Automatic annotation (TrEMBL):
Signal peptide: 1-21
Pfam families, per database record: DUF3108
Species the sequence originates in: Kordia periserrulae
Record's keyword terms, sorted: Signal
Keyword Signal attached: yes
Domain of life: Bacteria
Protein name per the record: Uncharacterized protein DUF3108
Amino acid sequence: MSKMKHILTIFCLLTCFLSQAQKKDAAFETGEWFKFRIHYGFINASYATLEVKDDYLNGKSVYHVVGKGKTTGFASIFFKVDDNYESYFDKNSGKPYKFIRQIDEGGHTKDIEIDFNHEKEKALVNNKKHKTKEEINIEKNVQDMVSAFYYLRNNYDVSSIKEGDEVVLNMFFDKENFKFKLKFLGRETMRTKFGKVPCLKFRPYVQAGRVFKESESLTLWVSDDENKIPIRIKAKLVVGSLKADLDAFKGLKHPFKILVD
């Protein structure tokens, strides 16, 4: 029922496919906040939020993004979820310095902290639940699942994007390096609670099996404006289907592009 960790992963990758032209202005700033309503079939299963804060890490001013997910209402009766994801990343380069994953999903728990050393291309994985530490090699320009969302929003635009274009991003999650691939499907205007929103439509490739029905089970929409914010995601799961919609927001740096009928 709860696919929260996968949903948060997806939200943090919603804008991963962007063309290779540098942006002149930042896409976000401190104070930006999103809330998403997640439906599993006909059930309003949970909410997820993402918030950008200012913080200091090892004496350095950084962005601190906190992502939370929690089941609500009827869904929480038979499967409780309480997840917390955090990333500390550089305000200029976007490189992640620390990633935190604390989850409780129906009694399945994890408490992991990852410290990145980009000069040595190492990640120190601290599993607090099992009281173990392990140093693992990482790829160049690697991102964690939260920092990737903000890094790509801030560094790439879609001025020359073409249908069928693809991008591959280096990611590190828990103890694993992997390549995340996303394909651009075109532009589409979506009806939302805020009005009609011009969007970019994407197809991320995921691993079929335990969670997703097939490798092309996901479809997502991102606002086609300077904010590049996630608007909607649909997923075909092994059991059932899922839809998540942007439900509330504040602190956007740029005007939210909404069409007037």
